[in-house]
């Protein structure tokens, strides 16, 4: 009888122990679940804003009369764009002689149309070379055949082109090579000190003088103090007592001086 009671007591304590162990594990599991709060989901990574496009300020136009050095530094590229399209036929009679116009990049916007239009205006003037009625002139686009090209080039580029053809300009004057009329942009923008005439007159002189070489005319000298300078006189280097004159024809007649010896 006593042995049965002992077994019962042992079983009771064993059962109690099992119950305590089970309840303890359950409480630990519940506590662990309470502490394991899910971490808040990380918001989707936002792409970094793209860097704002950096706009390079447009280069300020160099006003006429600015230093040659500044003009040269700001414009020399050595690459040219050709004016597109056909210009008007200039002149009323004679063989049609065609030419192109090219502008060094950065010297003018687009394809240099403004320069091309000014060339048309100068060569189409009734005081220009067409006044002789021996030929007509017309500007044509790059793909077309032409006798010569008028280039507007920076001082540095014009000096290089002229030097390649054996002419020394020191980056100061314009020049003419076979099939190439090279206009120095510094002179185009600012003429020369003491020229005594508006910039438009100097520009007309520069075109008529260099195109005159292309047409077969050589240099001429001042005919006398106070007289008009022949267009084939090197007026860029000084007028030698003459008066500035941009035209080969004056009052309908060819105006010329004696050839340079």
Automatic annotation (TrEMBL):
InterPro entries: DUF3152. Coiled coil: none annotated. Residues 48-59 have a biased composition (Low complexity). It comes from the Bacteria. Keywords: Lipoprotein. Pfam families: DUF3152. Residues 34-59 are annotated as: Disordered. Residues 74-240 form the DUF3152 domain. This is Lipoprotein. The lineage of its organism: Bacteria, Bacillati, Actinomycetota, Actinomycetes, Micromonosporales.
């Amino acid at each position: 009888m006593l042995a049965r009671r002992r077994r019962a007591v042992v079983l009771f304590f064993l059962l109690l122990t099992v119950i305590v162990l089970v309840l303890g594990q359950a409480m630990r599991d519940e506590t662990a679940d309470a502490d394991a709060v899910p971490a808040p989901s990380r918001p989707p990574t936002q792409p970094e804003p793209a860097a704002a496009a950096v706009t390079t300020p447009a280069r300020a136009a160099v006003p006429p009369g600015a230093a040659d050095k500044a003009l040269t530094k700001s414009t020399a590229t050595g690459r040219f764009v050709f004016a597109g399209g056909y210009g008007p036929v200039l002149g009323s009679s004679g063989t049609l002689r065609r030419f192109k116009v090219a502008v060094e990049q950065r010297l003018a916007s687009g394809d240099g149309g403004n320069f091309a239009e000014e060339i048309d205006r100068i060569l189409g003037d009734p005081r220009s070379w067409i006044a002789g009625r021996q030929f007509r002139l017309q500007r044509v686009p790059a793909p077309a055949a032409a006798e010569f090209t008028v280039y507007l080039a920076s001082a540095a580029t014009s000096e290089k082109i002229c030097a390649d053809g054996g002419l020394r300009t020191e980056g100061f004057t314009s020049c003419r090579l076979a099939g190439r009329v090279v206009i120095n942009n510094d002179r185009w923008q600012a003429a020369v000190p003491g020229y005594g005439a508006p910039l438009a007159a100097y520009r007309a002189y520069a075109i008529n003088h260099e195109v005159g070489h292309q047409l077969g005319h050589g240099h001429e000298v001042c005919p006398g103090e106070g007289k008009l300078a022949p267009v084939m006189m090197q007026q860029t280097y000084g007028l030698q007592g003459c008066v500035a004159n941009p035209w080969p024809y004056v009052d309908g007649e060819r105006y010329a001086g004696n050839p340079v010896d």
